[in-house]
Amino acid sequence: QNGIYILSKIQPDDLPVLDEIGDLLLRELHLQELNKHIFPHLLHIHFATETVDIDYCHPCSVITALTEQNTQNVFELVVQPPEKILAQARTILRDIAVDAIKIGLIGHVQTARAIHTVLKENPAVPVILDPVLAAGGGAPLADIDLINGIREWLLPCTTILTPNSNEARILAGNEQSLERCAARLMAQGCDSVSYTHLRAHET
């Protein structure tokens, strides 16, 4: 296992998403992960990667951002050059038959544009978009330019969107009803919406 493979950030709670699109994925699945690189959580990431491997997936990472963070919050976000993100994604796609692309933290509008280029070059590959707009501690991880870029470039390429309620409302233009949020997000191009981390009163 090389460093990037071990440091792939795939959360165990992402695995149910794979079940939802089982008909789109092969049993021996290569899942290309466009996500961030988190140094403080190597043990957790190693466990999560092994969990995905047990579930017949082989994650291949493309690093979009580095973070300075602890268990409380993110304090600095360092985005990677979009040309390097694009080059690494293309390198993987030339080498491995990728059966799905899962997108996590994006970090910058130019990163979203680079990801859009990759998706347009590979239109047959299913896309899972987890739109990370803020850290758990509240630090914003997306400005209005990036939010608009997600709406314009990434939603139309998305097979399954997996937002929490706050992310859904932001992407849907501050629509409060989650049912109407889902309808609006699908009207912007994504095939389906699967909410995550809903509070009891939101279900």
Structural key phrases:
203 residues; alpha/beta; seven-stranded mixed beta sheet; 7 strands; 19% strand; disordered N terminus
Structural class of the helix and strand makeup?
A: alpha/beta
Strand tally: 7
Radius of gyration: 16 Å
Main beta sheet: strand number and arrangement? 7 strands, mixed
Shape: globular
Mean pLDDT across all amino acids: 79
Number of helices: 8
The percentage of residues in β strands lies in 15-25%
Percent of residues in helices: 25-40%
| N-end to C-end Cα span | 40 Å
Based on the structure, what is the oligomeric state of the protein chains? single chain
Order of helices and strands: HHEHEEHEHEHEHHE
What does this structure look like?
It contains eight helices and seven strands. The longest helix has 14 residues, at 82-95. The protein has a seven-stranded mixed sheet with strand order 3-2-1-4-5-6-7. 38% of the residues lie in helices and 19% in strands. Helix 4 packs parallel to helix 5 (109-121), helix 5 (109-121) runs parallel beside helix 6 (144-154) and helix 7 (165-171) packs across helix 8. Mean pLDDT is 79; it is low at 1-28 and 38-47. Helix 6 links the parallel strand 5 (127-129) and strand 6 (160-161). With 203 residues, the chain is of the alpha/beta class. The chain has helices spanning 3-6, 15-20, 42-54, 82-95, 109-121, 144-154, 165-171, 178-187, and strands at 29-37, 57-69, 74-79, 100-103, 127-129, 160-161, 192-193.
